C-alpha cells in the first residue's frame, strides 16, 4: 500500500506512514508503530476518521497522509473535554460542525413528572419489542423522508441511520411505538449499551409531522422510562443535537442532566 516518509521531531529516525489496508494507516518509527489511523463510512455515506497516536507529531503525519489519500468532505468525532484532540483536528483543517450533548435521564416518574403523561386521544403506546415489523418499517421510511426533506438525516444520531440496502435498519426489539388505529405514528429507540448491560441508551424519538406538539413524544418517553424504572434501571442516557431545541427542552423538562458531549468536526 502507499507510504510516506517524514523526519521525526522525536529523534533521528524517520517516521514512515503506511496505508496498510483500505481503511487503515500506521505510523512507524524505528520499527515501532507509534500511531494508527482508521476510516469508516457511515450509513448515510459520510466518511469518518479516527487517529490514535503516541504524540502530536505522529498524529499530524497520519492526518497529512490520510487527508491526501481521501476525498472530501471528511468528518470526525471528539469528546468536547478532549481539548488536545480537538486542537489536533483543527490544526489539520477541521472545523466544528455540530455539538451533541450526552444527557443522563432519570427513570423514576416521581422525578421526571411523567407519571401522568398519557398519549393524546386516539393514540396508544406499543411496548418495546411488541411492534409489528411491517408498520414499523413503514413508519421508519416515512419519518426518514420527512426529516430528509427538512434538516436532513445527517443531523440525526449515526447509530439510527439505516444501511444503504435497508437490511437490518429496524429491529422491533429496540422500539416502542405510538399507534393511531392500524398505523404507527411515533417511535422511540432504546438499546443496551455495549459492555454495560444495566445501562440503556435512548437513540431516537421521532413523531410524524401531523402529530407533533401533541404529547406523543412525551408519552413515549414516559412509557419507556417507566418500564426501565420498574426493571430497576435508575438512569438512561441520550445523545441530543444541541441545535434541536425541542429535544433539549423535552429532556431537560424531565430532569435530565447534561453529563458531557461530543463535537462533530468536518473538513470540506
From TrEMBL:
InterPro entries listed in its UniProt record: Acyl_CoA_acyltransferase, GNAT_dom
Official protein name in the record: Ribosomal-protein-alanine N-acetyltransferase
PROSITE patterns per UniProt: GNAT
Organism phylogeny: Bacteria, Bacillati, Actinomycetota, Actinomycetes, Streptosporangiales
Pfam families, A to Z: Acetyltransf_1
Span of domain N-acetyltransferase: 137-268
Gene Ontology molecular functions: acyltransferase activity, transferring groups other than amino-acyl groups
Superkingdom in the source lineage: Bacteria
Amino acid at each position: 500500500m502507499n507510504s510516506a516518509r517524514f523526519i521525526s521531531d522525536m529523534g533521528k529516525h524517520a517516521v514512515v506512514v503506511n496505508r496498510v489496508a483500505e481503511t487503515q494507516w500506521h505510523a512507524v518509527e524505528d520499527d515501532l508503530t507509534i500511531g494508527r489511523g482508521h476510516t469508516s463510512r457511515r450509513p448515510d455515506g459520510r466518511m469518518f476518521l479516527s487517529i490514535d497516536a503516541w504524540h502530536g507529531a505522529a498524529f499530524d503525519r497520519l492526518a497529512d497522509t490520510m487527508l491526501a489519500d481521501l476525498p472530501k468532505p471528511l468528518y470526525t468525532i471528539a469528546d468536547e473535554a478532549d481539548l488536545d484532540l480537538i486542537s489536533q483536528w483543527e490544526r489539520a483543517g477541521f472545523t466544528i460542525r455540530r455539538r451533541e450533548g450526552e444527557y443522563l435521564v432519570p427513570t423514576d416518574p416521581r422525578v421526571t413528572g411523567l407519571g401522568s403523561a398519557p398519549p393524546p386521544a386516539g393514540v396508544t403506546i406499543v411496548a418495546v419489542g411488541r411492534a409489528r415489523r411491517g408498520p414499523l418499517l413503514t413508519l421508519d421510511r416515512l419519518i426518514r423522508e420527512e426529516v430528509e426533506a427538512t434538516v436532513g438525516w445527517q443531523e440525526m444520531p449515526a447509530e439510527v441511520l439505516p444501511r444503504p440496502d435497508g437490511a437490518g435498519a429496524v429491529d422491533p426489539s429496540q422500539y416502542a411505538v405510538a399507534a393511531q388505529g392500524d398505523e404507527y405514528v411515533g417511535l422511540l429507540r432504546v438499546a443496551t449499551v455495549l459492555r454495560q448491560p444495566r445501562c440503556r441508551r435512548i437513540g431516537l424519538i421521532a413523531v410524524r409531522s401531523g402529530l407533533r406538539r401533541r404529547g406523543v413524544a412525551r408519552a413515549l418517553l414516559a412509557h419507556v422510562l417507566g418500564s426501565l424504572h420498574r426493571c430497576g434501571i435508575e438512569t438512561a442516557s441520550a445523545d441530543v443535537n444541541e441545535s434541536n431545541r425541542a429535544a433539549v427542552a423535552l429532556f431537560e423538562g424531565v430532569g435530565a442532566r447534561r453529563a458531557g458531549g461530543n463535537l462533530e468536526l468536518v473538513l470540506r
